[in-house]
Structure formats: structure tokens, C-alpha cells
Specification:
It contains 24 helices and 22 strands. It is of the alpha+beta class. The protein has a 5-stranded mixed sheet. The protein has a 5-stranded antiparallel sheet with strand order 14-13-12-15-16, covered by helices on one side. Helix 23 links the parallel strand 21 and strand 22. It is globular and about 85 Å long. The site of 2-(butylsulfanyl)adenosine (IVH) has 16 residues, from strand 3, strand 8 and strand 11.
Length: 667
């Protein structure tokens, strides 16, 4: 394979992992393996500059910038640390430092690597003036109000010796206990769970409502003091001073004098960390003397005087019993590995999702293979590999099913995706049961008393074949079922009755229209007002709605184009379910742009393009797709296309910037 081909292959793989991690929140590779891929690509691009690409994932600086927060430049850029995964690599770091310091004596500070989200706090005259997230390393979001809710952070400094201009950096964390409490609460409310405390901490810090943040139980631990006039000439003493000023500094920071002591620190914390109340994903080693730090300096990305050592992910080897194929409410088939039970990070693992056909095939699973199960920083176990040496001699490769494991219907593949679905929407039991479970769920119609087992009973007895059948249930029909008493039946009927008052936007979500989630349902309901308008809305109208993209719009059209679905909706209407927003609901906010056609071009800072489209509509205007003599004005952001600009000039169409546009809106 040529370097060019390998580089392209690596970019494809890395981009796919990035997507799973950042977008789907569902990584399928360990940090270590991911770093290995990235390192290989970096090396390749260094050795063969001709294969480099400005859009290569190696040139992507991780960013957590969010709309809705003002941003600030960091006084000093927030760099990250180089990662190592073995004693040998730490040894090599030690030797590089030794060489760099030309034989000078040096001490190392050993610290925990806390697994949260980093924060920079600025204090002036002992008062907290600003808290900024890492962002892209150069600028971050100002989250001062949220940070102030963290009780362990001093708002004014205690003690003495703090510099008048102080910057201190640390990690915002959600302790395990709070993380579990938060996820339990989210599970109860049927909200998606956080994969790990890190995601929960960064998600919480970015909430727009500080009141909500204060309820989450965040904490913060500090590990880096910066300023022009620090009290001591070494990192360790400055950290201890910071502790005396009121900051939480880890009690496990240690001064280490030799590589041997570094090794002991690693050995101890490899298991010791499991008893800590907060998540850690490694250790950090820093040269203690600030003068020596200065001499060693920085590379473009990280300091030469510090290194992170990442703990190996916890993993175990266990035998595959069989692969099952599960059918979701939308008909999606998910392969699941069923395993010989194995203990991993304190819990017994028996099953792990294989996600889809591509991921399953990449593992090249054979019957009764020995599989590596990993937990890493994630809560959900993953299959990361197969021990091929232990493969049984005649083992057959595990094949993805071609027919629905439940109803036998031949599966169809969704175009452009790795997903297979069972198209038998109205006759496949797990799909029917899944839709009913969703329909009665707390965030949808909130019908109490119908749990998973009851749904199965209703479906298998044929009493309920679709969501509308729920409204034909009676106490008599329910008590005829095995194990259902009068009390339970009455409770269900009461729940069904109350569900008739559930607001329309939740009804839309309850219908299980493929790709239409909770937010999409709300936007649809609010923009179009009632079910008939949604059902008959043309594609162009649907994609104008915020959060409704082409795929969702097509899915909506397909859903309402289906006769069976229309009958179900009519029956729900007959049963008294809300099919419109309450009277008086107005989808328009003003008629500022009534009769006007506006074209949007470029990129914006205050709102996204889709939001601007929605704003235009909500104020009575129309979104035009190209500049013509019918265009009233162009809302132009940065980098507006030159062709559009020329055309606008030629036709005399006014070009208005973002601020001027926003100023046109009524308050
Ligand atoms: S020192 C210039 N110390 O790890 C060095 N970082 O990849 C600044 N982290 O962004 C970082 N625990 O969020 C340092 N004891 C510790 C740390 C730590 C966790 C995080 C931090 C940073 C990332 C580096």
C-alpha cells in the first residue's frame, strides 16, 4: 500500500471513530488504540509531506465551543499533555528530561489525571473574575456563572501570598456518586444516559441555566498555578500554596526523586485509583522546578516538562456463547454478543452490543471465539478484539442474519448505512411491542401500569396490535389477562384516560415516526400546529423548520404516506387524543418580514443558519434559495460566496449583516 493510500485509509478510520465518539457518544475503540492510529498518521504525514491534507484529522484541534456562551481568549494557550501507555514510554520521557537538563538534578511531581473537563479560572486581587473552558485551546467559553455554583471553588481567596493576577487550572468533575444519582434520575425520566462522568461534567458545565448546574453536584480539583509572580520557584510548593488559598488540590500529589519512585507510584495507583470517589484515567508526571520547566519549554501541542501516563483499560477475555439479533421499535436489527459471564471493573458482564454488521464483520467473529471485553472510561462494555489463537478448529464465521429473527421477513439494508431493518412494521412482534412501550413511556403518553411484560402480554394475546388499540382496552378485557387484577386494570384505564390530555407535541413524539426525536417532534408541532398540517406538509415546508433536515423530512412524508399510519391517527383522534396545539397557539412571532423573501448566505456567530431560517419564518418572511430580483434582502454572515455578492450588487439587492438583522426584530 502506498503512503498516500495508507494515509487515506487511516483518515477514514479515524474520522469514523471521531464521529462515533463525538456525535454518537458511542465509541467502539479504546483511547489507546485511537491514539495509536493518530500517531501513525502523524508520523506518515511528517515523513511524506506530499500526502498531508489540511483537512486531515491530525490538524483538528479538539474544541468544545458552544453557542450561547460568550468567549474569551486564554491569556496563555491551554495545551494538552503527551500520552504514554507503558513504563518504557515514561522511562523515555525521564531520559528526554535528563538530556534536556544536561545532567542537572531534577524532581518529578506525580499527580492523578482526573477525567473531567478542564477549566481556567482568573482571579484579580483575590476575586474570581472569569472562568473559561478549554475550547480550542486558544479561546474558550466563559462559564463563570456555572462555575460559581461549584461550592468547592473559592470565589475570593483566603490566606496570603497569592499573586494579584492569578490563573489556576483544574478539572471540573462529577464524582461517581453524583454521576450515578444523575443517571438514575435520567433513567427514571427516560432521558438518554451519560456514558461516563466526563461527558456528564462537560455537558453540565455547558447548561445555560446555572440553577440546573447547581443541582448536579459538580466538583473541581486544581493542578496548575500560573502567574507572573508566584510565591515559589517550584510546582509542588505552589500547589500547596493554592491549597492554602482555598482550592481543592489532590491529597495524592507526591514529590518523586527517581524513576523507581515513579514506577512505584504507577503500580500503586493502577489499583488504588479504583477506590477514589472521582474518575481518573491516568497519572501525570511534571518536572517540579519552574526554571527547569522553562528550560525544557513546549512543543506546538504540549509541554516537554510533563507527560500523562494512561492506565490500561480494564479488559477480560471470555467466550462467546452466541450472537443474538435484536429487533428495535423502528425495525433496526442490532447484533448482540452473549458471553460467558465475566467480572469486569466490579460488574458481571454477560452481553455486549456489536452495533451493526460492519462492526461485527470487522471483528471477524467465529462461533465460540474468545473475546476481549473492555470498559475503559466508559460504563458500557465493548468487544474490542478476538483472541484468534484460541479459535476452535472447525469454528464457522458468525453470519449476519438475512431474515428477521422474529418474523422471518427478509431484511432490507438502509441505503448508505450499515443498518439492516425488518420492513414488516405491522406484523413483527418486537417492533409492535417496542412502539407500544415507547407510546406509553413517561416522556410520551405517560400511561402508568403498562410495563414491558404487560406490553408483551397485550401483544402476544392479540389484544393490542397497534398504538390505537390501547384506547379500546377496558377493565374487563384487561382482567381477562393472566395475573391482572381489578386494581391494576383500573389503574391502567385511568392512565389511558389521562393520556387524552397529553399535549400534542408529546403525541407527535409518541407516534414513533422514524428519525423524529423529542426535539424534532416539538419543533414540528409548534411550527405546523396540528396533525393534518404535518401530514400534508410538502418537503420544502418541512425542511424550513429548525432541526428538520432532508432525511427527517423524507421520513415524515413516508410515514404519513402510509395508509395504515393514517388510519391509526384517525382512530387516535376519535379516541380523544390531542391532535393540535392548544387554541391560541401562534406559530408566528410577528409580521416583521411579511411578504418579504430573504436569502441567507455565509456563516454566523449569534445563531446557526437553520435558526435564522426559522426566525425569518416565525416573523412572517420567506426563505429564498438563490438571489433573484424577487429577493428583498440578503442576510450575510462571514465568507459570503463572491458569486452571490456580485449578483446582489448587479440586481441592487441590499446586503444586511447579522447585527442589523437582529435589530430589525421586535423585542
Ligand atoms: S496539567 C500544560 N495535570 O488532562 C499542562 N492536566 O491532556 C496542563 N488533566 O487538558 C495540564 N489531570 O484537562 C494536568 N493533574 C493534571 C491533570 C490534567 C487531568 C487533564 C487536563 C488537560 C488534559 C491534558
Amino acid at each position: 500500500m502506498s503512503p498516500q493510500q495508507r494515509a487515506e485509509e487511516l483518515r477514514r478510520i479515524i474520522n469514523a471513530h471521531n464521529y462515533r465518539y463525538y456525535v454518537l457518544n458511542d465509541p467502539t475503540v479504546s483511547d489507546r488504540d485511537f491514539d495509536r492510529l493518530l500517531k501513525e498518521l502523524e508520523q506518515l504525514e511528517k515523513e511524506h509531506p506530499e500526502v498531508d491534507d489540511p483537512l486531515s484529522p491530525t490538524h483538528r484541534v479538539g474544541s468544545d465551543l458552544t453557542k450561547g456562551f460568550e468567549q474569551a481568549l486564554h491569556i496563555r494557550p491551554m495545551l494538552s499533555l503527551g500520552n504514554t501507555y507503558s513504563i518504557e514510554e515514561v522511562d523515555a520521557f525521564f531520559n528526554r528530561v535528563k538530556e534536556g537538563l544536561e545532567g542537572e538534578q531534577f524532581q518529578i511531581v506525580g499527580e492523578m489525571k482526573f477525567d473531567g473537563t478542564s477549566i481556567s479560572l482568573i482571579y484579580e486581587d483575590g476575586r474570581l473574575v472569569r472562568a473559561v473552558t478549554r475550547g480550542d485551546g486558544t479561546r474558550g467559553d466563559i462559564v463563570t456563572d456555572n462555575i460559581k455554583t461549584i461550592r468547592s471553588i473559592p470565589l475570593t481567596l483566603q490566606g496570603e501570598g497569592w499573586p494579584r493576577n492569578l490563573e489556576i487550572r483544574g478539572e471540573v468533575l462529577l464524582p461517581w456518586k453524583e454521576f450515578e444519582r444523575l443517571n438514575a434520575e435520567r433513567a427514571f425520566n427516560e432521558e438518554p444516559l451519560f456514558a461516563n462522568p466526563r461527558n456528564a461534567a462537560s455537558g453540565t458545565l455547558k447548561l445555560l441555566d446555572p440553577k440546573e448546574v447547581s443541582k448536579r453536584g459538580l466538583d473541581a480539583i486544581f493542578y496548575y498555578v500560573l502567574g507572573d509572580t508566584l510565591p515559589y520557584d517550584n510546582h509542588y510548593d505552589n500547589l500547596m500554596a493554592a491549597r492554602s488559598w482555598g482550592f481543592k488540590v489532590s491529597e495524592h500529589v507526591r514529590l518523586l526523586d527517581s524513576l523507581e519512585q515513579v514506577n512505584e507510584y504507577i503500580t500503586y495507583w493502577d489499583t488504588g485509583r479504583k477506590a477514589l470517589p472521582v474518575a481518573t484515567d491516568g497519572l501525570v508526571f511534571k518536572v517540579n522546578s519552574l526554571k527547569q520547566q522553562l528550560n525544557l519549554g513546549f512543543t506546538a501541542k504540549s509541554p516537554r516538562w510533563a507527560i500523562a501516563y494512561k492506565f490500561p483499560a480494564e479488559r477480560a477475555l471470555t467466550r462467546l456463547r452466541y450472537v443474538s439479533f435484536e429487533v428495535g421499535r423502528m425495525g433496526l436489527i442490532t447484533p448482540v454478543s452473549n458471553l460467558e459471564p465475566v467480572l469486569l471493573s466490579g460488574t458481571v458482564v454477560k452481553r455486549a452490543s456489536l452495533h451493526n454488521q460492519d462492526i461485527m464483520q470487522r471483528l471477524d467473529l467465529h462461533e465460540h471465539d474468545m473475546l476481549w471485553v473492555e470498559k475503559g472510561g466508559e460504563i458500557i462494555p465493548k468487544i474490542t478484539g478476538v483472541d484468534e489463537a484460541q479459535r476452535l478448529p472447525d469454528a464457522q464465521r458468525v453470519q449476519f442474519v438475512t431474515q428477521c429473527p422474529s418474523c422471518g421477513t427478509p431484511l432490507v439494508r438502509i441505503e448508505g448505512e450499515a443498518a439492516w431493518i425488518c420492513p414488516n412494521k405491522s406484523g413483527c412482534v418486537p417492533q409492535i411491542a417496542g412502539r407500544i412501550e415507547h407510546f406509553v413511556g413517561r416522556r410520551m403518553m405517560n400511561i402508568e401500569g403498562i410495563g414491558e411484560e404487560m406490553v408483551m402480554q397485550l401483544v402476544t394475546t392479540g389484544l393490542v396490535k397497534d398504538i390505537a388499540d390501547i384506547y379500546d382496552l377496558t377493565v374487563e378485557k384487561l382482567t381477562a389477562l393472566e395475573g391482572v387484577a381489578d386494581k391494576g386494570a383500573n389503574r391502567i384505564i385511568k392512565g389511558i384516560d389521562e393520556s387524552r390530555q397529553v399535549p400534542f407535541e408529546r403525541v407527535v413524539y409518541a407516534l414513533s415516526i422514524p428519525y423524529v426525536g423529542e426535539t424534532g417532534s416539538k419543533k414540528l408541532a409548534r411550527a405546523l400546529g396540528d396533525i393534518d398540517t404535518i401530514a400534508t406538509a410538502p418537503y420544502e415546508r418541512l425542511v424550513e423548520i429548525e432541526d428538520i433536515g432532508p432525511r427527517i423530512a423524507e421520513s415524515i412524508i413516508q410515514y404519513f404516506g402510509n395508509q395504515e399510519n393514517r388510519i391509526i391517527i384517525d382512530r387516535l383522534r376519535q379516541a380523544g387524543v390531542q391532535m393540535a396545539m392548544p387554541a391560541g397557539h401562534d406559530t408566528s412571532l410577528s409580521d416583521t418580514f411579511a411578504g418579504k423573501t430573504i436569502v441567507i448566505s455565509g456563516t454566523f456567530t449569534h445563531h446557526s443558519r437553520d435558526e435564522y431560517k426559522a426566525i425569518i419564518e416565525a416573523h412572517g418572511g420567506k426563505n429564498g434559495s438563490s438571489v433573484s430580483k424577487n429577493t428583498d434582502f440578503i442576510l450575510a454572515g462571514d465568507n459570503m460566496g463572491p458569486a452571490k455578492l456580485q449578483k446582489a450588487e448587479k440586481l441592487g439587492v441590499p446586503v444586511i449583516d447579522e447585527d442589523a438583522f437582529l435589530a430589525m426584530l421586535p423585542n
